[in-house]
Amino acid sequence: MVKLELDQVVMRRMREDDIETVKAIIKEGCQGTENRLILHILTRPVCLLLLATVSSVLRCFLHSFILALIIPVFLLIVYLKFTMPRSTGVLGTSRPYWDYVGSSYRGAQNETLPNPYSRISGKPPPAKDKARRRTKPKAEDKDKDSSPEIVDVEREKAAGQVWVAVCEGEIVGCVSREGDCRLEMRRFCRVVVGCWYRREGLGRLLVQSLEQRERQTGARRVYAHVPYPSAVGEAFFRKLGYRLQGEVGYDGEEEEEDEEQPERTFLGFHVTKVFVKDLK
């Protein structure tokens, strides 16, 4: 673990040349999440009953009892691997594909989130992070420049926003907000911190800074979807003042459209928990 000075962290919009780094951080932070979700589904009583029924039918055609047990489980795992949205429990967004390019379209404006630790420490705010050196061959750069990705404002709005935390020129974490937001409602997507910088308060800093920005833009409530078997994610959001939707204290008089629906998958099983926080 590396000691991280939070007052020297710059939180800015993701740029197009940050996409591969952000993907790598998310992949590293989500290792095992999909497998835990599949295990959660396989151990539901209804799913176990269905597997037992299929195994009994196969037993009439197969002479091996073990094969009759293994084949249904194997086929169901393959089915879930291909049909379960990669975003669910991984990126924390209901969008089937993550539009990184659309999210980074306005990142060139160097828009940043406020860092309260800079004011508390009394140190001067960190300088803008320097762009990383490009190591691609000139020929490849030429090909890339010859066919630039076209992203319009509508695509950017639908893709949402990705914010990265940069310290000494290195991306150490990210947080994202889903697009197509309802009036005064925001949905935060996956919060990921690099493995060397965890338990340093960076995740809290990212979420609270984004909350402050959304509060200034008129949002009064934020939602966060946490993968169902993720005890760490649940504890993290509870410490930040979020509550599980439907718990005591949730305003039951809110209109139905103000409620988020948990993500569902095979046989309608919930694979996410919805946490909510009112911004005051």
TrEMBL record:
Family as reported in the entry's similarity comment: Belongs to the camello family.
Membrane spanning stretches: 61-80
Keyword Transferase recorded: yes
Keywords, comma-separated and alphabetical: Acyltransferase, Membrane, Transferase, Transmembrane, Transmembrane helix
Stated name of the protein: Probable N-acetyltransferase 14
Boundaries of every N-acetyltransferase domain copy: 118-259
GO terms for cellular component: membrane
Primary site of residence: membrane
Location within or outside the cell: Membrane
